[in-house]
């Protein structure tokens, strides 16, 4: 483990958990890489942001937001609370989204700089938000991208709220927009009520390395928006990448974030040199995340050992500063004829493999339920209950209990409930990828 960050910035560390022992001819090496950032400065609204952050809030103002009226009112109040949470010096803007995107504040294709006066004017502008029109989320994101590209801020972030499906835009248009915006800014997405599409909202957050959640009751929007903005204001280092270098003959099978949520990064690799590639992790504050790395090494004889991969956390060159190495860890492979050593499963690897399977079982079970496949849904959701019980994922277990009647959690024996509230099913699906940390001995 090594630390390379400047004293004034968060200090990063990398810890690698694995069983490095393989049987003769064994090839697949699994490791959990824990990345931790600590020691960043305290952040409050009164702490100047020094132009390091820019945020655009995108508020759904389509006609459905008026049914019931609490949604539009809740959106205005939540956006006002988020604006109040901005640190002085943060660049920001508000967009009203329908089948088109309109600048609400400050307008004229620019961002405002947060201070008491601009916060007051922005909240006054929110009074003009009203519902009407359709939904074309790609237009909202493209406008946000244009505004954020005009900023020199290192931390560039969007907050998106919607209550409906992206009905006034072809799916391919939204996908192309997400591809264009990926790497330029991060985005948290929220669905309010129960008439939106889970895969759309989670897909937006996934593509832009943000969080996704449901706010079934508009009364809870203010609390959720405040927490989201506090999290954004705590970010201090942007565009951090996990760089994997592998020796000749080693193949990367996958790279996944597994905590605090499952996020497959495998396809997001950017080659950075001979046998090296970067996987984006987004922006960081004081926090810890975990990644599951699987590499395939050439088979070897007992007694041999090799470096399977070098994992480096890097910050790109920006503002005249060179690329910075923040921390580094090593993944090893050692071949042995000790059966106990080569068959032991590292506890961290086992835990997060189970958490990834839990997320998949929930998603497949809910899909089977929607298709009327009772047996398939029962089997998958039963397996999910079993995995949640074994891993101590109490939050997911509680959500599952609203969709199935649990007969035996340890055995995974369940019965599908005859009636399930839309909000309960959507909450389970939206939060299916959220994981719990491995239990420490």
Structure description:
This protein is of the alpha+beta class and 441 residues long. The protein is built from eleven helices and 21 strands. It has helices at 69-85, 116-125, 137-149, 171-181, 198-207, 221-233, 339-343, 347-370, 374-391, 394-400, 422-430; strands spanning 2-3, 11-18, 21-22, 28-38, 53-60, 91-97, 101-105, 112-113, 155-162, 186-192, 212-215, 237-245, 251-259, 263-264, 270-273, 276-284, 287-296, 305-315, 324-335, 404-408, 413-416. Helix 8 (347-370) runs antiparallel to helix 9 (374-391). The longest helix is centred in the last third of the chain and has 24 residues, at 347-370. Mean pLDDT is 94; it is low at 1-7.
- Note the beta-strand portion: 25-35%
The major pleated sheet works out as: 7 strands, mixed
Low-confidence regions: 1-7
Structural class: alpha+beta
Looking at the chains present, what oligomeric state does this protein adopt? single chain
Mean pLDDT equals 94
DSSP helix fraction = 25-40%
What is the number of E strands?
Answer: 21
Question: What is the approximate shape?
Answer: globular
How far apart the termini lie comes to: 20 Å
User: What is the number of helical segments per DSSP (H or I, 4+ residues)?
Assistant: 11
What's the alpha carbon Rg, rounded to whole Å?
Answer: 23 Å
